[in-house]
Structure formats: structure tokens, C-alpha cells
Amino acid sequence: MALYLIGDLQGCDDALDRLLSHIDFSPSRDTAYFLGDLVNRGPNNVGVLQRLMRMGSSAQCLLGNHDLHLLAVAHGVRPLHPQDTTQDILNSPQRHDLLEWLRHQHMAIHAHGVLMVHAGVLPTWTVRQTLSLANEVEQALRSDDWVDFLPKMYGGPPHQWHDDLTPPLRLRVILNALTRMRFCTAEGEMDFTVKESADQAPEGLMPWFDVPERLTAGHMIAFGHWSTLQDTHREDVICLDDGCVWGGCLTALKLDNFERLSVKCPQALDPLKT
Predict the structure, then answer these.
(1) Residues 56-65: pLDDT tens digits?
(2) Is the Cβ–Cβ distance between 118 and 225 less than 8 Å?
């Protein structure tokens, strides 16, 4: 049995097919953990979701910001952006089944000693707290009135966590940290305006994983979302978004030996314009 972490797919089903062949993936034997942004900006979003659904329990999936955006667009909460490519899902005869499957995926996973999120973990959160807070959002998305929750995902402040926050602001901060965060202040206030690489942080900001005294320091965290990090792999931090959608690679990390296995992808977008 092999265990893999796989970065942002973003609708690139051909690359996923080639990667699974490259690693000789067997759904009856192996498990792949997909780190979110399953859809959007690539050419075959329907194909990606159909493939993941067929994989059953061998595919454990996180939700990313693009996946949540699709759910919001599908229910009239947000408009399509010019670079969105999820019209194939919105126009599909399987639209309902695809979206139902999508909203039941995870916000965070802890398995095999690795905490998995799409974007980041706030510096004041422990591993246990991160999983508990992620579950709050999962329950909202899986509830009967989940569509009413979608507009509450969006808005301005707060950009910083406080234990006494209540819904909907509480859930918005959790979502923003888990699916959108790159940079924050030393006090954990998130910034969403900067998408550049970690070494280009504006004054007063730093990558979330470099905040001093981060409570998850020393625990392995795997995430995607941030392609400009370029193959970041430290003792306790692994980024697996290698920029498939704009001509980089789709990468799988094999957990038993931390080997990175990749396939090249055709360029579709400039990451700094997404």
C-alpha cells in the first residue's frame, strides 16, 4: 500500500491521469490525499470530479478556495470570473451529483502524522483546534440549509482569529485561513492582497508558516494553494502546488520516503493573474 499527497488539480484531468499512471496508482491498494482546488482554471473540471468520485475512498479530498467559489457560483452567490473554466460542471447533466459530492469533502485532514490543509493554519491554532474548527465549516456545508451559508463565506473583516467569534464571522475566518491565507502578521492577522513568493513579503508580513512560536511548529503540515513557493519542502512544511495549470507540474509526494513524483503540464495561466 502506498500513500500519496497530491497538489492542486484545478481541472487538469489529463495531467492527473498521467500522474496516476506514472506512480502506478491502484485504488484497491493505494490512497491519495488531494490538497484542494480540485477544479477551475483547467480544461476538464467534470473529468476531474468524475475520476475522483470513481476512486471512492482511495481519494481523500480537501476543499480549496476555487472549489468553494464553484459552489457559490452554482447557487447565484458569486459571479463567474473571466478566467473561470467551471462552465463544464455548471452545464453538465451531472451538475447536481458533482456539486453534492464536492460539498461533502474535507476542510482539513490529519492522517499518517501529517496535517493537511489547502492554504494554511493560523499561528495560534493547535493541530487539534485546527481539525475541530475545520469540522465546524464541514458541518455547515453538509447541512440541509447549506446554501444559506454560502453568502456568509464572503465579506471583509475580521482577518484575525479570536476564540469568542461567533458565526458567521467565526466560520469566515476559519475558511479564509484554511483556503486563502498566504501571508499574515506576527500576531496572526491575515493579508489577502499579496500572492508573490515567500521571500517577497511586504514589510510587516511573513508566510504563515514562518510566524514565531507558531503552535503547529514541529508538526508536519502539507498544503497547496501557493505555487510561487516553488517546491518548498522543510522538516515541518510541504507545499505541493507546483503550478500545473500554468505550465508547471502536477506533483505527488510519496509519504513513506517523501519522494516527489511529477508530470509536466501545458501552460494555461499566469499564476499572478489568478
Answers:
(1) 999 999 999 9
(2) yes
